[in-house]
Specification:
Elements: E1 7-18, E2 21-32, E3 36-40, H1 47-54, E4 62-67, E5 70-71, H2 77-83, E6 84-87, H3 99-104, H4 116-129, H5 145-158, E7 163-167, H6 175-190, E8 194-198, H7 202-208, E9 211-216, E10 219-224, H8 226-229, H9 232-239, E11 243-247, E12 254-258, H10 263-284
Parallel strand pairs: 3-8, 3-9, 6-7, 7-8
Antiparallel strand pairs: 1-2, 1-4, 4-5, 9-10, 11-12
């Protein structure tokens, strides 16, 4: 029997129009406690706009957003920061803060009744989990893009908010750290939190997210579990690229395969796919 999860975030018939341009139209979805929800879609689909609205950073033209059953605009900024933490696409700092100082900033939203020792323990765990503990004395601007992304994630984790909103958290990362970030998202969900994240890697989303929301031109065109949301015909239309969906040979999840648009290349792609499938099957059978 499935357990009904409490709604952490409830987005109802959301519409956003800025400078005369409609960015979101009649968007409804919910984020449940204990789950990872991934937002997918091509560039300009409205994913970041939706995430910013969910964070309370954009005015709503229509609809409402409830965080723990309370409208976002009813929260005091400090109370809102304690309930949700936001990872932006890019973090710009005007001063050369050290990595340690950047991570410590996340503790500002917490209840000041916590002791310094408690703060230290949270900071240490976040830096170890994001593999940034060896960077503590480095200044933030001297880091690579991937290192900056991991430091910013550590800051978000130290906030200890039950709802995480992550805007392309894996974009600047290598394969190993992409897996690390999604494992962290799953750990947060399994501990009772809720994570909404924008991802461009559909296969990463299919492997780690409980539900997917596919966006196109400011609307949600599919919303559900990976096998339900990743329809090949719909993906082909949304991404303007031939797409096949197969079963992952080593995970119980969909495997999304973009195909060449050029008909002359389709036959070659089919042969390569057959060879690749044979290699994967051979590998997975050992």
């Amino acid at each position: 029997m499935s357990v009904e999860r409490r709604l952490a975030l409830d987005i109802q018939h959301l519409g956003i129009t800025l400078n005369g341009r409609e960015l979101l139209s009649d968007v409804s979805l919910d984020l449940r406690q204990g789950e990872v929800l991934a937002l997918l879609g091509p560039n300009g689909a409205g994913k970041s706009t939706l995430l910013r609205a969910a964070a309370g950073d954009l005015p709503l033209t229509r609809g409402q957003i409830l965080l723990d059953g309370v409208a976002l605009d009813r929260y005091h900024p400090r109370d809102l920061a304690a309930r949700r933490a936001v990872l932006p696409q890019q973090t710009m700092l005007q001063f050369a803060f050290t990595v340690r100082e950047v991570v410590e900033m996340g503790r500002g939203a917490r209840n000041r009744r916590q002791t310094r020792d408690e703060d230290e323990a949270v900071i240490r765990r976040a830096m170890e989990r994001t593999e940034t503990d060896t960077l503590q004395e480095r200044t933030f601007p001297t880091l690579s893009g991937g290192e900056q992304a991991r430091v910013t994630l550590a800051r978000v984790l130290t906030q200890e908010a039950p709802v995480l909103l992550l805007d392309e958290p894996t974009a600047a990362l290598d394969l190993s750290h992409q897996q690390m970030v999604m494992e962290i998202a799953r750990e947060v969900a399994q501990a009772g939190g809720a994570v909404m994240t924008i991802l461009h890697d559909i296969n990463l989303a299919a492997a780690y997210a409980d539900r997917l929301a596919l966006m196109h031109r400011g609307r949600i065109v599919a919303f559900g579990e990976p096998w339900e949301a990743l329809n090949p015909e719909l993906l082909t239309e949304v991404f303007d690229c031939p797409i096949a969906v197969a079963r992952h040979p080593m995970r119980n999840c969909p495997l999304v395969l973009p195909l060449p648009k050029n008909a002359a290349h389709m036959q070659l792609a089919g042969k390569e796919l057959t060879i690749s499938s044979e290699i994967i099957h051979k590998f997975s059978s050992h």
